[in-house]
Input
Amino acid sequence: MDPILIVGAGPTGLVLAIELARRGVPHVLIDQRPKPQVWDRAAVVKARTLEILAALGLSSEFLARGTAIRGTDLYCAGSRRASFRFQVLDTPFPLMLGLSEGVTEEILTRELERLGGGVKRGVEFVDLNADDKAIRVRVRENGVDRTMEPSRLVGADGLHSKVRDAVGIEFPGHDYDQQWGVADLRFANWPHEPDLAAAMFDPLLIPVPIGGDIWRAYFRADPAVSAHEIHIARCLEMLAPGTTVASSDEPQLFHTHSRIATRFRSGRVLLAGDAAHACSPIEGHGMNGGIQDAFNLGWKLALVATGKAPDALLDSYDVERRSIAKIVCGSGDDAEANAAQGDPAAIDAAAKNLATAEGQYKAAFGESELGLGYDASPILGSIGREPIPQSMTAIGYRLGDAGPLMGPGGAIRLHELIAHTGHSLLATIGKGDSAKSDEVAKMTRHVADRFGPHVKAFVVTRNANASGSHDDLLIDATGAAHSRLGGSEEPSLCLVRPDGHLGLRLTPPALPAVEAYFARILA
Output
């Protein structure tokens, strides 16, 4: 098998390489920088990204290295106008994590190396020649050009992607007029709670704690101020009177953009992360979106590269992730046009909305990225229009956590149960007779046997003795956990994708529908 070539060893490329390494798929990850970048901009890991990192077995290390942020206070002209907290969220991680992107890359690189992979540094992508059957890539190392022939190529090489340019994919959108700035600061006499983000608009200053008493502060670059430390100090005096900057690195200025590639795929070439989409930094979605791209693409690319899935499966990556990019870029545009410009009417409207419990929940939920789903995906099961209980997950969306569940190995939570490289089939037994329960268990066994390594199957019941002949499949779930998966009077079935999104729900379970779903996924 020819390896997959990944260009760009930022968080997106690293997570994709980890996903391939977990599945034993040969790959090469290159980066033109001889060393990891010293300066970075991203500082926030969202709740949904933490769930992904937990599935990779890395959440504990991330939490230990970063600062848990339990909410955000919003200020305008030095006065607190509104706030919201993350504890209202239905997730194992009701928080944002403040952490430098450099530390994120460090942790991911070490995990990739543990899996037997690594980053080939100082290797520059030059150009490519590709058709439907093959791809030839020219790279340059130590001034010497050589040719590689990977099975697929993924451009995770950032905003100015050479891979995107080489394959001729357009990158339409617009650039924001005003520059942003960022600096890592240590404060003296900081008056606000250390586990809250304090975001001020008019003037704009957003300090985020990233661990080690360091705050990464984002600000609007003032063209009238040559020394931006002076501008930061003026903003800080409004946000936190009496606070001074004890130490600071050199502020860095950068331009921001709202752009989405017209395609995330061209034959054997795919784009991910900033190479595929760029959004305003005001909501902190950029790095998180790239990691979620990689988590979506990884399992699909592994199946296609090993001949276990049709090439068309990769088309779903474009449909699913481009739809999310449109939502995120649109949200960033709205924020840039309103609150980030210090528009008093927009700030008043936001404050009024956040004065209600519903508004606070919506703000926390939107910030968490938990509600981003794949309604238009071509590979999902039929998305019915019948209403579902709020506790249940809609098809195409990330499955919520629940627990404890009791199985042959002891107590486990739902997210732990589905944290493996394949699909998870969860068939719930309702209050029917034992014959119906046995029928569900036998169907579950059939799916597990037929689709082998691609699925782990479980029978979820309120009574672990309901079908004793299938003890190795049984998971006992009570209360909210059972309700999460179906929990109705009738048996039901959930099929969860490797990226944690719900691919199929059936009440009652039906084997032909399960087989039709896998026909769209597997070769």
Q: What stands out?
A: Residues 465-470 have pLDDT under 50 and may be disordered. The longest strand covers residues 180-188. The two ends are 17 Å apart (CA to CA).
